[in-house]
Amino acid sequence: MEDKHNKGTEGIPEDREKAVLVSVRWGGSTQETAEESLAELRSLAETAGAEVVATIQQIRSRPDAATFIGKGKLQELTESLSICEADLVVFDQDLTPSQQRNLENQLQVKVLDRTALILDIFALHAHSKEGKAQVEMAQLRYGLTRLTGKGIELSRLGGGIGTRGPGETKLEVDRRRIKTRIRTLDRELKDLSRVRRVKRKRRERQAVSTFALVGYTNAGKSSLLNSLTGAGVVVEDQLFSTLDPITRRIGLPAGRQALITDTVGFINHLPHQLVEAFKSTLEEVREAEVLLHVIDASSLGVRRKISAVDDVLEELDACEIPAIYILNKADLLQEDDRESLARELPRSVFTSTVTGEGMPELMERMSAMLLSSRIVRVVIPHHEGELLAFIYRKGQVLKIESDEAGHHLTADMPTETLHRLEPFIDVAANRK
């Protein structure tokens, strides 16, 4: 089977593993959702370097405790592996450690679940010291749940899919050594996080407004960053091609200057291990004044992907940050689809990095978000000195009084900063 997406892809061997994909649809989900998820799993497998040779689907009310799928489907999977000469099975759902072991024992091939596949892709694309440490942390935490008793011998050699990153030498050690390595990585990431925090505080002192690009993986965030700033970031038609945040300066209408940061893409059911490991990097999202939520308007399951991004933003405590919805790749849309999306997301901006459509409108919208402001009354506790300084830097303090409770301020603040002040807003005073 020809694979047009992976020709010449760096880091992917020419003798690719042949994979059979397995998707189980539960009674409450729709066929359309299952097909979209399976198509996404195919893209993930191809990004990891596999050649997908067959797919198997099943409808169940609940997973089989031992093998996830039923006996009949397990026999069908065994026959499919033999016919296609496949050496890899990838499940669209997460498997328990015992289910994975039982399947590998019966099928005599490597079995991965969705989380393991995503972790492998992150390992493939991690290049910076921080990125590699974050991925290794996530993989070790995932691998730790796969250890039983005195340990497990992982016979996964050769650098194939599911073995990148920490690799056999780290995953075959005992539980104590894995936990020691995790603590070491945690210290390294905290040190790197402190460096990043210092840089953010320097930007705040310079009163530079910040935007963060967020969105589903492969939505076109890096291409948009290039179009807006001329950043020259390498763009690849692959899932999770950007892991390390990239910040560039942008000039906006009305003479405003701002910084815009490209962040790692999200995905449906993004492994919790990755969200935890990448939190130091994703702080760039939480600290941004405005989010630019980039959506591949031409893709399947647009609404589901928007919800998946919102779920991750909620986990990061970033869902209250003001956002501009950007319907990217508009040049690939049919007119009916464009009209439908315009009705559903009426305040969004259609853009295309190919034709340049929507770029002036987007920059005007970004500038307007920074220029709008609101007068608020807040009570800042005495120990929140950094927040008080933030208010003076970003807004205009109209009145201030102090008592035992703290500093009572009336300030004219840019609307994009209000999420930082929300816990301290004096609700009674603002009603007057």
Q: What descriptors fit this protein?
A:
single chain; 432 residues; alpha/beta; Rossmann fold; 4 domains; 4-stranded parallel beta sheet; disordered N terminus
Structure overview:
The chain has 432 residues and is an alpha/beta fold. The protein folds into four domains: 18-112, GTPase HflX, N-terminal domain (Rossmann fold, 3-Layer(aba) Sandwich); 126-188, no CATH class; 208-370, P-loop containing nucleotide triphosphate hydrolases (Rossmann fold, 3-Layer(aba) Sandwich), CATH 3.40.50; 372-431, Alpha-Beta Plaits (2-Layer Sandwich), CATH 3.30.70. The protein is 43% helix and 20% strand. It has helices spanning 31-48, 71-84, 97-107, 114-125, 129-144, 167-171, 175-205, 221-229, 272-277, 279-286, 302-315, 335-344, 359-371, 385-394, 418-421, 427-431, and strands at residues 18-26, 51-60, 88-91, 110-112, 209-215, 246-251, 257-262, 290-296, 323-328, 349-350, 373-380, 396-403, 406-414. The strands form three sheets. A six-stranded mixed sheet has the order 6-7-5-8-9-10, with helices on both faces. A four-stranded parallel sheet has the order 2-1-3-4, sandwiched between helices. The protein has a three-stranded antiparallel sheet with strand order 11-13-12. α1 runs parallel beside α4 (114-125) and α5 packs antiparallel against α7. 38% of the residues are buried.
